């Protein structure tokens, strides 16, 4: 990702507290147009709260969100040009794959015939054309996730936010979906913001990674720069030491040394 590319999203001084608990403590960062940014951190660090503020599902106590030069801090979710893929996919169980995708379009005012055509296009784009008439219960977890992604992309958002979307998938399906997300991001020119607690996932997918700890940003940089220059002990421990532990645990099966720090 070229650092000279323009900012798609500018987040400044976002704060959020629940009772006496400061969940976000003045978070500021930019998201570049067309990049894949992962927000990485453990449970309770504030990453999902931040995602909900970006999408308009939650109001910040302070700070601003600017998209394409327009302040959208108080805009409704439907006015933001963003899509979100939830961890549980949120599909309608009594609707077919085609109807799940078309419903979102109809809800936004598209005619029935146009909605059907667009839904079929997007279902095909995620490789599910032969499953268009099935109900969600007849699909695998990875296929359900593809439906959720198709439904989100059908509305042509220029930013898509994904909240731990692979946590319920098996390893093989997760690897397949990583490649699919990267392909779809390139194909549709979408800016992707990906919330995860998985260090390996963040390093495999991202142009840049934003590492969070206790409601603050510890480091925001490329995977390569984070690996070479961790900002502090927390980044070293939570990110690099954990990645090294995974490498070391597998090295005896590959016949290669993990290399240490």
Describe this structure in words.
With 261 residues, the protein is α/β, with parallel strands linked by helices. 38% of the residues lie in helices and 25% in strands. The chain has 8 helices and 10 strands. The strands form 2 sheets. A 6-stranded mixed beta sheet has the order 6-7-8-3-9-10, with helices on both faces. Strand 7 (159-163), helix 5 and strand 8 (191-196) form a beta-alpha-beta unit. The longest helix has 22 residues, at 233-254. The protein is globular. The two termini are 27 Å apart.
Which short descriptors sum up this protein?
four-stranded antiparallel beta sheet, 25% strand, 10 strands, globular, 261 residues, six-stranded mixed beta sheet
How do the strands and helices of this protein lay out in sequence?
Blueprint: E1 7-18, E2 21-32, E3 36-40, H1 47-55, E4 62-67, E5 70-71, E6 82-85, H2 97-107, H3 112-125, H4 141-153, E7 159-163, H5 171-188, E8 191-196, H6 199-205, E9 208-213, E10 216-221, H7 223-228, H8 233-254
Parallel strand pairs: 3-8, 3-9, 6-7, 7-8
Antiparallel strand pairs: 1-2, 1-4, 4-5, 9-10
Short description:
The chain has 261 residues and is α/β, with parallel strands linked by helices. It is built from 8 helices and 10 strands.
């Amino acid at each position: 990702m070229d650092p000279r590319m323009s900012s798609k999203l500018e987040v400044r001084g976002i704060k959020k507290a629940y009772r006496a608990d400061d969940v976000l403590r003045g978070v500021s960062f930019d998201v570049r147009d067309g990049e894949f940014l992962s927000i990485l951190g453990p449970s309770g660090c504030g990453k999902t709260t931040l995602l909900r503020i970006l999408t308009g599902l939650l109001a910040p106590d302070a700070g601003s969100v600017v998209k394409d030069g327009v302040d959208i801090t108080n805009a409704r979710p439907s006015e933001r040009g963003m899509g979100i893929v939830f961890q549980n996919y949120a599909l309608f169980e009594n609707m077919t794959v085609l109807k799940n995708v078309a419903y979102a379009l109809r809800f936004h005012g598209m005619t029935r015939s146009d909605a059907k055509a667009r839904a079929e296009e997007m279902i095909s784009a995620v490789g599910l054309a032969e499953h268009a008439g099935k109900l969600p219960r007849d699909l695998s977890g990875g296929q359900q996730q593809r439906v959720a992604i198709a439904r989100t992309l059908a509305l042509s958002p220029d930013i898509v936010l994904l909240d731990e979307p692979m946590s319920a998938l098996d390893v093989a399906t997760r690897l397949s979906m990583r490649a699919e997300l990267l392909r779809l991001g390139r194909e549709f020119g979408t800016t992707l913001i990906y919330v995860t607690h998985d260090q390996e996932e963040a390093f495999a997918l991202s142009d840049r990674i934003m590492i969070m700890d206790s409601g603050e940003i510890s480091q925001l940089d490329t995977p390569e720069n984070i690996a070479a220059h961790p900002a502090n002990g927390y980044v070293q421990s939570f990110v690099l030491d954990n990645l090294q532990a995974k490498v070391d645990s597998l090295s005896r099966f590959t016949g290669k040394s993990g290399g240490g720090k």
